Amino acid sequence: MSAQPHSSAEPHSYTADDPETALKFAIQHIRGDRVEIIEGVIQPVSPSWGHEKAAAKIRRQIEPVAEKLGYLTGSGNLDLPGTSNWYIPDLAVVPENLTEDAGALLPDQTLLIVEVTSDSNAETDRVVKRRRYAEYGAPLYLLVDRQARACTLYSMPGELGYTEVHGPHPFGTSIRLPEPFGLDLDTSDF
């Protein structure tokens, strides 16, 4: 079982002491595509422009606060050690000092994770990723459900899931992101 996030300091060197490590190493070295592993299934990450639009609008709103806090917004790798899961969220807010040499971070090292649904992955974002992000301690999970045209903010993670749920709120409703963000997220143009 992996205990630490995987590092890319030596990108072509690893010790395959278990299948999880070998699988996660292999997907990081697929040329041309970014892929994630969801419950053992390798899936390409290929968002549509509508999907990207929603993520970009969120990023623009939270970046000023993240920058003041010393955090970075992006869609880097998240490792879920002890499982065959390797996620690439649509957006995550992470401490800038942890991004220097990290090949992947852990969900509990984030301030916020955002997933935007697509026709091909909506149930995965609604159910599987929500459960796993809570299990791995991501403090805030924002689900932008483009099919339902609604946003839901999950907080207070635990082993059995998130204990606080705010929403679903229809697009156009402001979503309050708690401290340290302390801002109302405009969802009118998702």
Task: Tell me about this structure.
The chain is α+β, with helices and mostly antiparallel strands and 190 residues long. It has a single domain, classed as tt1808, chain A, CATH 3.90.1570. 23% of the residues lie in helices and 31% in strands. It has 3 helices and 12 strands. The strands form 4 sheets. It has a 6-stranded mixed beta sheet. It has a two-stranded antiparallel ribbon with strand order 1-2. A two-stranded antiparallel ribbon has the order 4-5. The chain is globular, with a radius of gyration of 16 Å. The model is unreliable at 1-12 (pLDDT under 50).
Distance between the termini: 39 Å
Structural class: alpha+beta
Element pattern in H and E: HEEHEEEEEHEEEEE
Report mean pLDDT, rounded to a whole number.
Answer: 88
Q: Unreliable segments (pLDDT under 50, ≥5 consecutive)?
A: 1-12
The total of beta strands comes to: 12
Strand order of the largest sheet: 3-6-7-8-9-10
- Radius of gyration based on Cα positions: 16 Å
Can you count the helices?
3
Residues in helices, as a percent range: 10-25%
Shape: globular
CATH top level? Answer: Alpha Beta
Question: What number of structural domains do the residues give?
Answer: 1
Main beta sheet: 6 strands, mixed
Strand content bin: 25-35%
CATH fold descriptor: tt1808, chain A
CATH architecture identity: Alpha-Beta Complex
CATH homologous group name: tt1808, chain A
